[in-house]
Structure formats: structure tokens, C-alpha cells
Design brief:
Distance between the termini: 49 Å
CATH class: Alpha Beta
Number of strands: 10
Strand order of the largest sheet: 1-2-4-3-5-6-7-8-9-10
CATH superfamily: Alpha/Beta hydrolase fold, catalytic domain
CATH architecture: 3-Layer(aba) Sandwich
Structural class: alpha/beta
Number of helices: 14
Length: 479
């Protein structure tokens, strides 16, 4: 009761306090200009040449797939060929060839009968058994390549990671198999590929030679498309189980997701008892298929599978100043607008946080090398840092993770300051409050409702030497 009263008092104070200063058009113009910082990475002659080369390779690979596996029906989809803005960060390609880790392409059958395309990531160096992370993409222009930055970073931190294209995106099938050919289509208006698809991906990730993957019954008709999965396995097309199964500690599992995928993991992470923790990129939601901001069709064959879930698992939300279609503010926004789900988690007594990137956009959490999908310079590094630290604490159960979550390094990031209009290295939004409400391994709690301003308990002593870069981590030698 005392904790609830203290929380209410803190919220009342925040509500009345508003933002740090009154709205100023010039300040907003400077802040909005940060949405185009990332193009300084990919608008160079060297990067553009590499992007063209990778795009051509991806296109040729898609043509080869179409010829060798004509049953697949992904060819008319946006990003089916992985060129230009669909390529992701091309500096992460040839990861295994360059000795940075190991990766295997995978194919499996979703409950609708659609063929799902993905990759599993790990390192040669590391313990015999490791925690696992399943990543669910956002919608539309969001193939799995956009999330390889997170997969490779997490693999280097000692995880086994699955990335895949939800049904209707990238190189996964747009349609399922009769009588469920229209289940999950179109993915963006159906919604189930991001919710049910997350659970299908988790099922595949946890499959082994003794518990081979079998699709769940479809939502529309209750049909099990196991014969298609078995047929494709027998033909050497699909995987019968996760090729890195022997590395996975099945008792330590996390989910990460972006946009529609964030809504999906916010739900499945609470619903599925196999999951320990959640990171939701723009943004954390409540565990419901009916009360969220994105539409999800019901599951007639198994209505209970779409029933609301209780909040019991720790979840971190990450967001940014600007959304899917960034536009200039003409007044100060509500400073608690981004934190509503995280505040609900705190009210339920569950560890949570909401971190809002200053000058960032919806694309901080995926790498699209195209100025039409702007992002800040360092938001993606901040995302990789906190995603890893959250899973280290709640999935890996590493007591040293608190140091990384309580860091002040993102208050004065030198690379962010070097490109900022005012040389401000504080990467937390001044419009929206960033918060953490977590129990600490050494005892006690950190309850900070304005991380940008700072709170007792935050410290520069996070155990990391020097500047942090997801690219440096991903491209470091394996072992």
C-alpha cells in the first residue's frame, strides 16, 4: 500500500510539473533535425556502393529461391528481394564468413500453413547452454534484416537468437494453406502474424530432435498443417527443429519486438509461461488482443488463446520523440503519454521501464538505409545497450546487469553530442519522461521517474570500458 501511495504521489507531481520548459519553436526545430542524423552513416559513397552490391546479391538470392522452391508465395511483397531500404545495415552481412559468429537460415510452417523464413544466431565461443531470445518484426517495410543489429549484438552477449519474417512480410509466405489460405492475410489488418506468429516462432525456437516442430492448429478452422511441414522437411526444404537447439537453455527465454511486433510480444510474453521477460520497441503494450492500439482478429478455433493475460513478467518499453510519420510539434506533448503501459506494470507490482530517445523516431529500432525513414545517430546503440542489459537481468539473471541499467553514460554520450545542434549528449527526451522501476540484485529498488534529470542510484560505473557501439560489438571476433 505504501508503494502504491508513493507511486500515486510521484505521478501527481509529474502531471502538474509538465515538461522542463515552455514550448519553443526554435528548440523544437533543432530537436526535429535529429531525425535525419542516421543518414550521415549511409549517405557516403562507400556505404552506397556496398548497399548496391548487397541489394543485387539479395535480389539474385530471391530469384534462386523462387526457382528452387516454387511453392513459396512471398514474391509480390514489399522487401521480398531485400534491396535498398529493405537491406538493413549492410555492414552486418557476411557475419559468419568474417568470423564474428554463426548463423543458420531456417524455414518452418506457421499454424496457417504459411512458410516462415528466418535465421538463428549464436557464437562458437560461449557456454554449452545459453538463454534464448525471439525477435518479432514490425509491419510493412520491416524484414528481418532490419533487426540483425539486435540479433548479432545479443548473440555476442551470450544468447541464441531467432529472427524471422512474419507471414506476409519479407520472404515468408503471404498466404497459408487451404482451408486457411486467408488466415493472417493481409498481415497488417489481420494482426495475428504478430501475435500468434510470435508463439509459432517460439515453438520452433524451442524445438529439438526429440520434440520436433509441429504447427499448432489454425485459428480459423482448427486445421493442423503438420502434413505440409513434414512434407517440406522430407524434401529438405523446411527445418524439423532449431539447428542450434543444443545451445538453448529452455528455462531462460526472452521476447523482443518492434511496432506491431512490440504489441505481439507484450501479449505473448505475458501469456506464454515459457517466457521470462520482454523488451518492446515503440512501444510496450498491455497484454490484450482487443484493447490495444493495433487490430488483431480473434481465434475462432481456440478463443481462449486470445484471452487477456495478467501482468506478471518484467517488461521494458523503448520509444522516441517522434512516431511512424515524424512531424514537428506545435505544442508540448503530454510528458507521460509514452509511459502509460509501463505505469500499469508498476501498478501491478512488476518491474518495468520506459526509455524515450531524444530526437528519435519509430525507426530507431530498425535500420533502414533511406532518408525517408529517418533516425537519430545513436538511438540504435542506446536500444542495443538497454535491450541487452534488460535481458541480462531478467533472462540471464546476471546480478551485474543492474550496473548497465543504472548507467549515466547516455546522459553525456560524446558521439551524440558531436552531431547535436547544441552539443547536448543527453539522449533522453526532454518532452517525454523516461523511467525505471526495478528491484535491485543487492536489495532495494530504483524508482526513477525522470532519468534525463537524474536520480539517486544512477551511476557512471557501468563496467563498460569506453564508448558503446552495436556495430563494434557485432563485428568483434568470435571468441
Amino acid at each position: 500500500m505504501k508503494r502504491i501511495i508513493a507511486m500515486c504521489a510521484a505521478l501527481a507531481l509529474l502531471t502538474t510539473a509538465g515538461v522542463a520548459s515552455a514550448y519553443d519553436a526554435a528548440t523544437e526545430a533543432e530537436n526535429f533535425s535529429k531525425t535525419q542524423e542516421r543518414q550521415t552513416i549511409y549517405n557516403t559513397a562507400q556505404y552506397q556502393l556496398q548497399l548496391r552490391t548487397v541489394g543485387q546479391q539479395n535480389q539474385q538470392r530471391a530469384i534462386t529461391i523462387a526457382a528452387s522452391d516454387p511453392e513459396r508465395n512471398f514474391h509480390g511483397q514489399l522487401c521480398a528481394t531485400g534491396e535498398d531500404g529493405c537491406a538493413g545495415d549492410v555492414r552486418l552481412y557476411d557475419w559468419e564468413a568474417h568470423g564474428h559468429g554463426i548463423v543458420e537460415p531456417v524455414l518452418f510452417t506457421a499454424r496457417s500453413g504459411a512458410t516462415i523464413s528466418g535465421h538463428v544466431w549464436a557464437t562458437l565461443d560461449g557456454p554449452a547452454k545459453r538463454p534464448g531470445i525471439v525477435i518479432t518484426n514490425g509491419s510493412v517495410q520491416a524484414p528481418e534484416q532490419l533487426y540483425w543489429f539486435a540479433a548479432q549484438t545479443l548473440a555476442k552477449a551470450g544468447y541464441v537468437v531467432l529472427t524471422s519474417d512474419p507471414q506476409g512480410q519479407g520472404q515468408s509466405d503471404g498466404h497459408g494453406e487451404a482451408p486457411d489460405e486467408n488466415e493472417g492475410f493481409p498481415a497488417q489488418s489481420d494482426g495475428r502474424p504478430f501475435f500468434d506468429g510470435t508463439r509459432d516462432a517460439l515453438d520452433f525456437f524451442l524445438s529439438t530432435p526429440s520434440t520436433i516442430y509441429k504447427p499448432r492448429p489454425s485459428c480459423e478452422t482448427g486445421t493442423r498443417h503438420v502434413p505440409k511441414q513434414n512434407r517440406r522437411v522430407a524434401a529438405g526444404l523446411n527445418n524439423a527443429f532449431n539447428p542450434f537447439w543444443y545451445l538453448v537453455n529452455q528455462q531462460k527465454i526472452g521476447l523482443a519486438g518492434h511496432s506491431f511486433g512490440a504489441a505481439g510480444v507484450s501479449y505473448i510474453g505475458q501469456k506464454d509461461p515459457r517466457v521470462d521477460a520482454i523488451v518492446a520497441w515503440d512501444n510496450l503494450g498491455l497484454p490484450s488482443t482487443t484493447g490495444g492500439r493495433l487490430p488483431v482478429k480473434p481465434c475462432p478455433a481456440d478463443p481462449a488463446s486470445h484471452a487477456d493475460a495478467a501482468i506478471t513478467k518484467p517488461a521494458l518499453g523503448m520509444s522516441a520523440d517522434y512516431g511512424l510519420t515524424p512531424s514537428v510539434y506545435t505544442a508540448d506533448p503530454d510528458p507521460l503519454e509514452k509511459s502509460q503501459a509501463s505505469l500499469a506494470y508498476s501498478e501491478a507490482g512488476v518491474d518495468t521501464g520506459e526509455l524515450v530517445i531524444r530526437g528519435g523516431t519509430h525507426y530507431e529500432f530498425s535500420f533502414i538505409p533511406n532518408p525517408a525513414f529517418g533516425g537519430s545517430l545513436r538511438g540504435i546503440d542506446q536500444t542495443a545497450w538497454y535491450t541487452t542489459a534488460w535481458f541480462d537481468k531478467y533472462v540471464k539473471r546476471d546480478p551485474t546487469a543492474d550496473r548497465r541499467l543504472l548507467t549515466t553514460r547516455w546522459h553525456h554520450d560524446a558521439a551524440a553530442a558531436a552531431i547535436d545542434p547544441n552539443r547536448d549528449g543527453n539522449m533522453y527526451s526532454f518532452y517525454y519522461r523516461s523511467r525505471l522501476d526495478i528491484g535491485l540484485a543487492a536489495g532495494g529498488r530504483l524508482e526513477c521517474e525522470d532519468i534525463r534529470a537524474g536520480c539517486p542510484g544512477l551511476s557512471p560505473d557501468d563496467g563498460w570500458n569506453g564508448s558503446y557501439s552495436y556495430l563494434d560489438v557485432a563485428n568483434s571476433p568470435d571468441g
